[in-house]
Amino acid sequence: MTIIKTLFASLVLTFGLATANAGTLDVVKDRGNLICGSNTGLAGFGNPNDAGVWEGIDVDVCRAVAAAVFGDASKVEYVPLTSKVRFTSLQSGEVDMLSRNTTWTLQRDVELGLEFVGVNYYDGQGFMVRKDLGVSSATELDGASVCIQVGTTTEMNLADYFGANGMSYESIPVETNSEADAAYLAGRCDIYTTDASGLYASRAGYPDPSAHVVLPEIVSKEPLGPSVRGNDSEWADVVRWSLNAMIIAEEKGITSGNVDDMIANSPDPETQRLLGVKAGYGAWLGLDDAWAANIIRQVGNYSESFEKHIGVNTPINIERGLNALYKDGGILYAPPFR
Amino acid sequence: MQQNFLRKLIFDEKTRALLIQTLVIGIFAVLIYLVTKQTAYNLEKRGIGTGFEFLNIAAGYDISISLIPYDSNDTHLRAYFVGLLNTLMIAVCGCFLATILGFLVGIIRLSSNWLFRNIAYVYVEFTRNVPVLLQIILYYTILLHLPKVKQSLVIFDNFYLSNRGLFSPAPIFKDGFSLVIGSLIVMIIFTFFLKRFLKKKQELTGKQYPIFLINSGLIIFTPIFVYYLMGMPLEFDHPVMKGFNFKGGMVIRPEFLGMLFGLSIYTAAFISETVRSGIISVSKGQREASQALGLKSNFIMRLIIIPQALRVIIPPLTSQYLNLTKNSSLGIAIGYADLVHGFGGISLNQTGKAIEIMLIVMSTYLTISLIISFFMNLYNKAVQFKGNI
Prior knowledge:
The complex is a heterodimer.
Chain A: H1 2-15, H2 24-31, E1 34-38, E2 47-48, E3 54-55, H3 57-70, E4 76-80, H4 86-91, E5 97-98, H5 106-110, E6 114-116, E7 121-123, E8 125-130, E9 144-149, H6 154-164, E10 169-174, H7 177-185, E11 191-195, H8 196-204, E12 212-214, E13 222-224, E14 227-229, H9 233-251, H10 259-265, H11 269-274, H12 281-284, H13 291-298, H14 302-309
Parallel strand pairs in A: 1-4, 1-5, 9-10, 9-11
Antiparallel strand pairs in A: 2-3, 6-14, 7-13, 8-11, 8-12
Helix pairs in contact in A: 3-9, 3-13, 9-13
Chain B: H1 2-11, H2 13-45, H3 76-108, H4 114-128, H5 132-144, E1 153-155, E2 159-162, E3 165-168, E4 170-173, H6 177-205, H7 211-229, E5 234-237, E6 240-242, E7 245-247, E8 250-252, H8 254-281, H9 284-292, H10 297-327, H11 342-351, H12 354-383
Antiparallel strand pairs in B: 1-2, 2-3, 3-8, 4-5, 6-7
Helix pairs in contact in B: 1-2, 3-8, 3-10, 3-11, 4-8, 5-8, 6-7, 8-10, 9-10, 10-12, 11-12
């Protein structure tokens, strides 16, 4: 099926008249909803819940953009994309933006004609094994069979890591997260490797999560973030600052609960600028002044989104770690809002 | 003069046809030109690089199922050949197995034994009415539920079967083994001429020779004799359980087996119907006449029915081979690293060259299919009736 999708997207590139003349922001406004490329299903990041409503921290970025543009976070249409077709879909204009745990790399940023607008999750590639194998470090994995999801940075990191440590392995390349889970659980492979966040998310869905362990070695840098087409910096700014607004809101202690109170009472100038109390900042982005307030009211700040979907109180159970604010020991940092 | 030319253009059949054909070709060429130009324009406008230089960049990923030496430092071009060979491997093995199974089932469906006939009938109806993708996934899932690698089933002391595949000893050829192979080839050529010679003698004298027995004896026993003469220049590398996996030996992986079973069992159902229709198409009189001559029933099948049935069987058989080859692109569903999965999937994603890679993959499949058609057409010509009927 992915072949057909790739072909279709290629065809659009081949025959489609360039529609990029009109800015994406105007196209989205005219259409009345945002089309967001999402994961095919990764718990906590982008996954439809029991009621069929998409949720997760990647999905929250899409919702934030919709809240900024329309004042309504629900005006999003999600297009589930495999890792293989995601870039072609974005390039061809099938989706307005991509928010599906995608690593920011030089080649994707430059050669593929994309623009990464920020990082919403700092990740790294890890290894998961069964506890009963008695493995405690990734350096003991010589000769193992490894399940990898294809079309990612993962297979290259894997080749590099095993090569650098002089270890051999058998790779079983699979197409989606669920196929990798099935092959790993059946014992076809000893190791499942992908971004550590993905491993935690997968493990949460296993029959006996405690029988599996994520090894301490993180073998790569995987800054995951939303991306847009590279030829539309106006639209890139909208997406970038929608994400930044969530991070700044956490920094300033603004939550979905207290946002109206903050609008009425906060004496802090940056908070006032962010929430549109001081007018004019939304217009720079082509939005109205309440855009950031809408994001915080409907989606929440970064911390709320994190704790709701993947935090320590969820089955996925990830610590903030690198993803804490810079002042809390992490590396999450947004440029000043002025 | 001028008027004459115009008149000729419109009313002369030959000139008119030429004019229309030129126009059609012209329009087609312009269309191709416009599409290419528009594509280049669109790509440039979106800031997407184009070109085939990426083929010389290191691929950066590993492929475990590979017929040629390959590692992650090799180029995308080499990854392409690895994928191509994997596709050809599954296509050749699949066509071979499907043909044997298809002929067997086709003949069994015409058998007079009620039970065999109906088992074959159920098999055909079940397999050809269920999508091949589901069948591939079914066989693969069954293979994944074989014992885990640490509890491998041991077969004949040297073979180990688990959900990581079938591990078997790998032959190591030492000095002198090439002579064994050489003697085998010499014998095959020799028996070919021997057969012609004995046939001719039979036509002259009427005396029958056990050609098959003599020839198979020569082909089997000569290499064995040479093998012992050379002091048994063959050793085996046995797989040994070490750490996570077996080390050494050879392995047939479940991904390959799943594809092989799925494709050949599915295609065999279609081939069996082709074979059945071919056999039925041979008129009843042929069989009755040969029975009247007192021929044994397997002679009737082999010498009278099948050669005539082949005329009907070959053309649809060709398209079944083509189908199987193209269906091998479903390897992506179970992680078999064929052309589409490896080069058309992983390389495509690493480089982002969707149009270039899709073009390469599509023209490759086109070329493979045309080659299969070409040889099947040659074979078809060879089995057709000679002369006018």
